[in-house]
Amino acid sequence: MKTIFFLFCTLVIQNVSAVTTLAVTEVSPGIYVHFGPHQLPDKINHGEIANIGFIIGDSCVAVIDTGGNPDQGYALKNTIEQITIKPVCYVINTHVHPDHILGNIAFKQSGVKFIGHKKLARAMAVRGEYYIAKASDQLAVKLTAKHIIAPDMPVKRHMTLDLGGRKITLTAHPTAHTDNDLTVFDQNTDTLWISDLLFIGHLPVIDGSLKGWLKELKRMEKQDYKVVIPGHGPAVTDWPKSLQPEKKYLQTLLSEIRKMIAKGQFIEDAVNQVGYLDKGQWKLFEQFHKKNVTTAFAELEWED
Question: Is this model's pTM higher than 0.85 or not?
Protein backbone atom coordinates (compact mmCIF):
# COMPACT_ATOMS: atom_id res chain seq x y z
CA MET A 1 0.00 0.00 0.00
CA LYS A 2 1.41 3.35 -1.01
CA THR A 3 2.02 5.77 1.85
CA ILE A 4 -0.13 8.85 1.37
CA PHE A 5 1.11 12.19 2.65
CA PHE A 6 -1.50 14.56 4.07
CA LEU A 7 -1.00 18.29 3.69
CA PHE A 8 -3.54 20.34 5.57
CA CYS A 9 -3.78 23.95 4.44
CA THR A 10 -5.23 26.20 7.15
CA LEU A 11 -7.11 29.47 7.16
CA VAL A 12 -4.74 32.39 6.80
CA ILE A 13 -5.69 35.86 8.01
CA GLN A 14 -4.11 38.76 6.15
CA ASN A 15 -5.12 42.18 7.49
CA VAL A 16 -8.92 42.35 7.26
CA SER A 17 -9.48 39.77 4.53
CA ALA A 18 -9.28 36.02 4.93
CA VAL A 19 -7.62 33.82 2.34
CA THR A 20 -9.15 30.36 2.42
CA THR A 21 -7.38 27.24 1.27
CA LEU A 22 -8.31 23.57 0.99
CA ALA A 23 -7.07 20.44 2.70
CA VAL A 24 -5.24 18.48 0.03
CA THR A 25 -3.51 15.10 -0.08
CA GLU A 26 -0.44 14.32 -2.17
CA VAL A 27 -1.56 10.93 -3.50
CA SER A 28 1.42 10.58 -5.87
CA PRO A 29 4.50 12.82 -6.17
CA GLY A 30 3.28 16.20 -7.39
CA ILE A 31 -0.39 15.17 -7.58
CA TYR A 32 -2.66 16.77 -4.98
CA VAL A 33 -6.32 15.98 -4.31
CA HIS A 34 -8.96 17.64 -2.19
CA PHE A 35 -11.44 14.89 -1.31
CA GLY A 36 -15.09 15.85 -1.18
CA PRO A 37 -17.57 14.35 1.30
CA HIS A 38 -20.31 11.89 0.34
CA GLN A 39 -23.16 14.38 0.55
CA LEU A 40 -25.88 15.81 -1.62
CA PRO A 41 -25.12 19.38 -2.73
CA ASP A 42 -26.98 21.81 -0.47
CA LYS A 43 -26.89 25.23 1.19
CA ILE A 44 -24.49 24.01 3.86
CA ASN A 45 -21.79 22.44 1.68
CA HIS A 46 -22.51 24.82 -1.27
CA GLY A 47 -21.89 21.99 -3.73
CA GLU A 48 -18.36 21.24 -2.48
CA ILE A 49 -18.70 17.47 -2.73
CA ALA A 50 -16.36 16.29 -5.52
CA ASN A 51 -12.70 15.36 -5.64
CA ILE A 52 -10.72 18.20 -7.21
CA GLY A 53 -7.02 19.03 -7.38
CA PHE A 54 -3.93 19.60 -9.47
CA ILE A 55 -0.74 18.19 -10.98
CA ILE A 56 2.56 20.09 -10.75
CA GLY A 57 5.14 19.94 -13.52
CA ASP A 58 8.53 21.62 -13.82
CA SER A 59 7.03 24.46 -15.85
CA CYS A 60 3.41 24.78 -14.82
CA VAL A 61 0.35 23.31 -13.12
CA ALA A 62 -2.70 21.51 -14.51
CA VAL A 63 -5.87 21.85 -12.44
CA ILE A 64 -8.24 18.87 -12.53
CA ASP A 65 -11.77 20.13 -11.85
CA THR A 66 -12.39 23.28 -9.84
CA GLY A 67 -15.22 22.60 -7.44
CA GLY A 68 -18.88 23.21 -6.79
CA ASN A 69 -18.89 27.00 -6.51
CA PRO A 70 -16.65 29.98 -7.33
CA ASP A 71 -15.34 30.33 -3.75
CA GLN A 72 -14.08 26.76 -3.77
CA GLY A 73 -12.30 27.50 -7.02
CA TYR A 74 -10.56 30.49 -5.44
CA ALA A 75 -9.66 28.39 -2.40
CA LEU A 76 -8.11 25.80 -4.71
CA LYS A 77 -6.17 28.54 -6.47
CA ASN A 78 -4.88 29.85 -3.13
CA THR A 79 -3.86 26.33 -2.13
CA ILE A 80 -1.84 25.89 -5.31
CA GLU A 81 -0.08 29.20 -4.72
CA GLN A 82 0.92 28.10 -1.21
CA ILE A 83 2.44 24.87 -2.49
CA THR A 84 4.21 26.02 -5.67
CA ILE A 85 5.27 29.17 -7.48
CA LYS A 86 4.63 27.46 -10.83
CA PRO A 87 1.78 29.11 -12.78
CA VAL A 88 -1.43 27.35 -13.72
CA CYS A 89 -1.41 26.67 -17.46
CA TYR A 90 -4.39 24.32 -17.86
CA VAL A 91 -7.77 23.77 -16.27
CA ILE A 92 -9.14 20.34 -17.16
CA ASN A 93 -12.82 19.64 -16.57
CA THR A 94 -13.57 15.92 -16.42
CA HIS A 95 -17.30 16.33 -17.20
CA VAL A 96 -20.20 18.76 -16.98
CA HIS A 97 -21.58 18.16 -13.48
CA PRO A 98 -21.65 21.36 -11.39
CA ASP A 99 -19.63 20.00 -8.46
CA HIS A 100 -16.69 19.75 -10.88
CA ILE A 101 -16.92 22.96 -12.94
CA LEU A 102 -18.39 25.87 -10.99
CA GLY A 103 -15.02 27.00 -9.63
CA ASN A 104 -13.64 27.63 -13.13
CA ILE A 105 -13.95 31.40 -12.84
CA ALA A 106 -11.10 31.48 -10.31
CA PHE A 107 -8.66 30.47 -13.05
CA LYS A 108 -10.00 32.62 -15.88
CA GLN A 109 -6.90 34.67 -16.67
CA SER A 110 -4.33 35.20 -19.38
CA GLY A 111 -2.21 32.15 -20.12
CA VAL A 112 -4.66 29.58 -18.76
CA LYS A 113 -6.30 27.19 -21.23
CA PHE A 114 -9.52 25.35 -20.39
CA ILE A 115 -9.77 21.78 -21.66
CA GLY A 116 -12.62 19.28 -21.83
CA HIS A 117 -14.27 16.52 -23.81
CA LYS A 118 -15.36 17.50 -27.31
CA LYS A 119 -18.99 17.32 -26.11
CA LEU A 120 -18.45 19.35 -22.94
CA ALA A 121 -19.13 22.78 -24.46
CA ARG A 122 -22.47 21.60 -25.78
CA ALA A 123 -23.38 20.04 -22.43
CA MET A 124 -22.49 23.29 -20.65
CA ALA A 125 -24.63 25.26 -23.10
CA VAL A 126 -27.59 22.96 -22.54
CA ARG A 127 -27.30 22.82 -18.74
CA GLY A 128 -25.70 26.12 -17.85
CA GLU A 129 -28.89 28.15 -17.57
CA TYR A 130 -30.40 25.51 -15.28
CA TYR A 131 -27.31 25.46 -13.05
CA ILE A 132 -27.43 29.23 -12.74
CA ALA A 133 -31.16 29.26 -11.95
CA LYS A 134 -30.93 26.59 -9.26
CA ALA A 135 -27.67 27.64 -7.57
CA SER A 136 -29.24 30.25 -5.31
CA ASP A 137 -32.05 28.00 -4.02
CA GLN A 138 -30.08 24.77 -3.82
CA LEU A 139 -26.56 25.93 -2.92
CA ALA A 140 -26.99 29.48 -1.57
CA VAL A 141 -24.57 30.52 -4.33
CA LYS A 142 -25.15 33.30 -6.85
CA LEU A 143 -24.07 32.53 -10.39
CA THR A 144 -24.23 34.30 -13.73
CA ALA A 145 -23.42 33.22 -17.26
CA LYS A 146 -19.77 34.19 -16.74
CA HIS A 147 -19.36 31.26 -14.35
CA ILE A 148 -20.08 28.66 -17.04
CA ILE A 149 -16.70 28.53 -18.77
CA ALA A 150 -16.49 26.21 -21.76
CA PRO A 151 -13.24 24.60 -22.93
CA ASP A 152 -10.84 26.43 -25.25
CA MET A 153 -9.31 23.11 -26.27
CA PRO A 154 -11.71 20.22 -26.94
CA VAL A 155 -10.39 16.66 -26.71
CA LYS A 156 -11.69 14.50 -29.55
CA ARG A 157 -9.92 11.28 -28.59
CA HIS A 158 -6.57 11.83 -26.91
CA MET A 159 -4.45 14.84 -26.05
CA THR A 160 -1.01 14.93 -24.44
CA LEU A 161 0.07 17.97 -22.43
CA ASP A 162 3.62 18.69 -21.29
CA LEU A 163 3.78 20.42 -17.91
CA GLY A 164 7.57 20.48 -18.05
CA GLY A 165 9.25 17.15 -17.40
CA ARG A 166 5.80 15.70 -16.90
CA LYS A 167 3.45 14.53 -19.63
CA ILE A 168 -0.22 13.87 -18.96
CA THR A 169 -2.54 12.17 -21.43
CA LEU A 170 -6.20 13.14 -21.65
CA THR A 171 -8.73 10.66 -23.02
CA ALA A 172 -12.24 11.53 -24.20
CA HIS A 173 -14.48 8.54 -23.51
CA PRO A 174 -17.61 7.34 -25.29
CA THR A 175 -20.86 7.94 -23.41
CA ALA A 176 -20.65 6.34 -19.95
CA HIS A 177 -21.25 8.23 -16.68
CA THR A 178 -22.08 11.21 -18.94
CA ASP A 179 -21.59 11.81 -22.66
CA ASN A 180 -18.55 14.01 -21.92
CA ASP A 181 -16.28 12.00 -19.58
CA LEU A 182 -12.58 12.80 -19.65
CA THR A 183 -9.76 11.03 -17.81
CA VAL A 184 -6.21 12.19 -17.10
CA PHE A 185 -3.21 9.85 -16.96
CA ASP A 186 0.11 10.96 -15.47
CA GLN A 187 2.93 9.00 -17.06
CA ASN A 188 5.53 9.88 -14.42
CA THR A 189 3.67 8.25 -11.54
CA ASP A 190 1.35 5.81 -13.34
CA THR A 191 -1.63 7.64 -11.84
CA LEU A 192 -5.04 7.75 -13.51
CA TRP A 193 -7.44 10.56 -12.57
CA ILE A 194 -10.57 8.67 -13.58
CA SER A 195 -13.05 11.09 -12.00
CA ASP A 196 -16.71 10.02 -12.04
CA LEU A 197 -16.13 6.93 -14.11
CA LEU A 198 -15.34 5.51 -10.67
CA PHE A 199 -17.29 6.00 -7.44
CA ILE A 200 -15.90 4.57 -4.19
CA GLY A 201 -18.44 4.35 -1.37
CA HIS A 202 -20.81 6.81 -3.07
CA LEU A 203 -23.48 5.13 -5.22
CA PRO A 204 -22.59 5.43 -8.91
CA VAL A 205 -24.84 7.89 -10.73
CA ILE A 206 -25.92 7.22 -14.32
CA ASP A 207 -26.29 10.35 -16.44
CA GLY A 208 -25.21 8.82 -19.72
CA SER A 209 -25.39 5.16 -20.71
CA LEU A 210 -25.41 2.09 -18.48
CA LYS A 211 -24.20 -0.13 -21.31
CA GLY A 212 -21.61 2.40 -22.36
CA TRP A 213 -20.28 2.74 -18.83
CA LEU A 214 -19.91 -1.01 -18.39
CA LYS A 215 -18.17 -1.24 -21.77
CA GLU A 216 -15.65 1.43 -20.76
CA LEU A 217 -15.00 -0.22 -17.39
CA LYS A 218 -14.44 -3.58 -19.07
CA ARG A 219 -11.85 -2.01 -21.32
CA MET A 220 -10.16 0.02 -18.59
CA GLU A 221 -9.91 -2.76 -16.02
CA LYS A 222 -7.49 -4.57 -18.32
CA GLN A 223 -4.96 -1.79 -17.73
CA ASP A 224 -2.68 -1.55 -14.70
CA TYR A 225 -2.42 1.70 -12.71
CA LYS A 226 -0.44 2.38 -9.57
CA VAL A 227 -2.91 4.94 -8.24
CA VAL A 228 -6.47 5.73 -9.37
CA ILE A 229 -8.31 8.89 -8.29
CA PRO A 230 -12.11 8.63 -8.42
CA GLY A 231 -14.53 11.52 -8.67
CA HIS A 232 -15.97 10.60 -5.28
CA GLY A 233 -14.20 8.58 -2.61
CA PRO A 234 -10.57 7.90 -1.65
CA ALA A 235 -7.72 7.33 -4.07
CA VAL A 236 -7.05 3.63 -4.52
CA THR A 237 -3.95 1.53 -5.08
CA ASP A 238 -5.57 -1.84 -5.80
CA TRP A 239 -6.99 -1.29 -9.28
CA PRO A 240 -8.93 -3.10 -10.72
CA LYS A 241 -10.09 -4.73 -7.46
CA SER A 242 -11.41 -1.38 -6.24
CA LEU A 243 -13.56 -1.14 -9.37
CA GLN A 244 -15.53 -4.32 -8.73
CA PRO A 245 -18.28 -3.02 -6.37
CA GLU A 246 -19.25 -0.36 -8.90
CA LYS A 247 -19.07 -2.83 -11.77
CA LYS A 248 -21.22 -5.30 -9.84
CA TYR A 249 -23.86 -2.67 -9.11
CA LEU A 250 -24.07 -1.56 -12.73
CA GLN A 251 -24.04 -5.12 -14.04
CA THR A 252 -26.86 -6.01 -11.64
CA LEU A 253 -28.97 -3.20 -13.03
CA LEU A 254 -28.28 -4.39 -16.55
CA SER A 255 -29.13 -8.05 -15.99
CA GLU A 256 -32.14 -7.58 -13.70
CA ILE A 257 -33.78 -4.89 -15.81
CA ARG A 258 -33.29 -6.92 -18.99
CA LYS A 259 -35.05 -9.86 -17.34
CA MET A 260 -37.97 -7.67 -16.28
CA ILE A 261 -38.34 -6.17 -19.74
CA ALA A 262 -38.30 -9.66 -21.28
CA LYS A 263 -41.16 -10.62 -18.93
CA GLY A 264 -43.16 -7.58 -19.96
CA GLN A 265 -42.84 -5.86 -16.59
CA PHE A 266 -42.96 -2.11 -16.26
CA ILE A 267 -40.57 0.60 -15.13
CA GLU A 268 -42.48 0.98 -11.85
CA ASP A 269 -41.79 -2.68 -11.07
CA ALA A 270 -38.10 -2.21 -11.75
CA VAL A 271 -37.85 0.86 -9.56
CA ASN A 272 -39.25 -1.07 -6.61
CA GLN A 273 -37.45 -4.38 -7.14
CA VAL A 274 -34.11 -4.02 -8.93
CA GLY A 275 -30.73 -3.76 -7.24
CA TYR A 276 -31.58 -3.61 -3.54
CA LEU A 277 -29.45 -6.50 -2.24
CA ASP A 278 -26.27 -4.38 -1.89
CA LYS A 279 -28.06 -1.28 -0.64
CA GLY A 280 -26.12 -1.23 2.64
CA GLN A 281 -22.71 -0.81 1.04
CA TRP A 282 -23.44 2.51 -0.68
CA LYS A 283 -23.77 6.06 0.59
CA LEU A 284 -26.64 8.08 -0.94
CA PHE A 285 -28.37 4.94 -2.19
CA GLU A 286 -31.83 6.27 -1.39
CA GLN A 287 -31.11 9.54 -3.19
CA PHE A 288 -29.83 8.08 -6.48
CA HIS A 289 -30.79 4.44 -6.93
CA LYS A 290 -34.34 4.90 -8.25
CA LYS A 291 -33.12 7.51 -10.73
CA ASN A 292 -30.45 5.06 -11.91
CA VAL A 293 -33.05 2.34 -12.45
CA THR A 294 -35.31 4.73 -14.34
CA THR A 295 -32.47 5.91 -16.58
CA ALA A 296 -31.27 2.36 -17.22
CA PHE A 297 -34.77 1.05 -17.96
CA ALA A 298 -35.37 3.80 -20.51
CA GLU A 299 -32.14 2.84 -22.26
CA LEU A 300 -32.64 -0.91 -22.18
CA GLU A 301 -36.27 -1.11 -23.25
CA TRP A 302 -35.26 0.19 -26.69
CA GLU A 303 -32.17 -1.93 -27.25
CA ASP A 304 -32.07 -4.34 -30.18
Answer: yes
